[in-house]
Amino acid sequence: MAEYRFPVDASQIMLFARAVGDKNPIYHDAEYAKNTEVGGIIAPPTFVQAAAQYDPNFPLRPRIGEPWFGSGREPTGVKPKEKAAADGKKEGAIGQSARVLHAEQKFLYHRPIRPGDVLTVTTKPGKRWEKEGKRGGSLKFSEAISEFRNQDGELVVTAIMVGVETGQTVTQN
Question: pLDDT category, 97, cuts 50, 70, 90?
């Protein structure tokens, strides 16, 4: 079970809302937000995805002075085969089999995220299951469940990511 902390401030909320194109003033205008049902600035849906930058083990987070495998075709110097060989794993990107894909993401919201919150993120494995693929071969599904709790220990968001391992190696175009 992995755990790390994610401090939240108003500027992060505003920048995230701008990055996803959400102009709702509840994410940046304190005067407007105080007169709403929630009574202040809150974070937009999916904001918890920004927590990945605080996860010391997040494989797509750049680390100063180290080559990394980001999201480009050939990012800053680490090719999938080199990364896999260095890790002693199967050929693939970000330290996983090249056959692992992100299949689904769900968010369950329990309370608003507010500036000043310090979220503790705990991730654990969830259910696992298999299905037969349409093109042959089995598809192996697995969940990763992340709970985001505020500084008072209150559950704020539950994020459930479903990954799928295909029977074939994924190729880049």
Answer: very low
Mean pLDDT of 148-166: 95
Q: How many C-beta atoms surround the C-beta of residue 103 within 10 A?
A: 15
Would you say residue 34 lies in a domain?
Answer: yes
Tens of pLDDT, residue by residue over 57-89, are: 887 777 777 766 665 555 555 565 555 555 544
| SS3 (DSSP) at 12 | helix
> What is the domain range of residue 45?
2-59+95-165
C-alpha–C-alpha distance, residues 131 and 133, integer Å? 6
- Which of the two residues, 131 and 67, has the higher pLDDT score? 131
Q: Is 79 inside a domain boundary?
A: no
Q: Could you tell me the pTM of the whole model?
A: 0.76
* Overall number of domains in the chain: 1
Residue 104 lies in a domain: yes
* CA dihedral over 88, 92, 93, 94, signed as positive or negative: negative
Res. 90: pLDDT tops 50:
no
In a domain, 171, yes or no: no
- Take residue 33 and report the two structure tokens written for it: 């937000």
The residues near 33 (Cβ < 8 Å, ≥ 6 apart) are 25, 26, 39, 40, 41, 42
Query: What are the φ and ψ backbone dihedral angles of 93, each rounded to 5 degrees?
Result: -90, 155
Domain of 6: which CATH number? 3.10.129.10
